[in-house]
Amino acid sequence: MAAAGQLVVAGRGSAAVGALGLLLLCVLLHGQAAESAVFTVGDRGGWGMGAGSWSKGKQFKAGDVLVFKYDSSAHNVVAVDAAGYRGCTTPRGAKVYKSGSDRMTLARGTNYFICNSPSHCQAGMKIAVTAA
After folding, report:
1. Which range is the signal sequence, renumbered to this chain (predicted)?
2. Same structural domain for residues 87 and 40?
């Protein structure tokens, strides 16, 4: 009988450890979300031809959110890779955002964004943002 009682206690202990682990995970995830910052690309000027240097001097973290505000009849936003950024090309299958108010969550490393309206990227409507 004592052995059975010990098994029940051990089972309860395992459940408690599992619950504690789940609680800790929730706290950590909530803490990361609470620390995320929201940045409007181009500040008051928004996402436009002069936004290319907007990120210079700013510090970003993975999980931060960039808000792209722009005239959706003239511009868009495309998250691209380094080659797409350098060559102002949209990779096959890339999602083109066109709402005029798009939110992008930064991943760790360098995140690249362009406007793929004709000649806009070539005219400097692109940004590279590095998140720690």
Report:
1. 1-33
2. yes
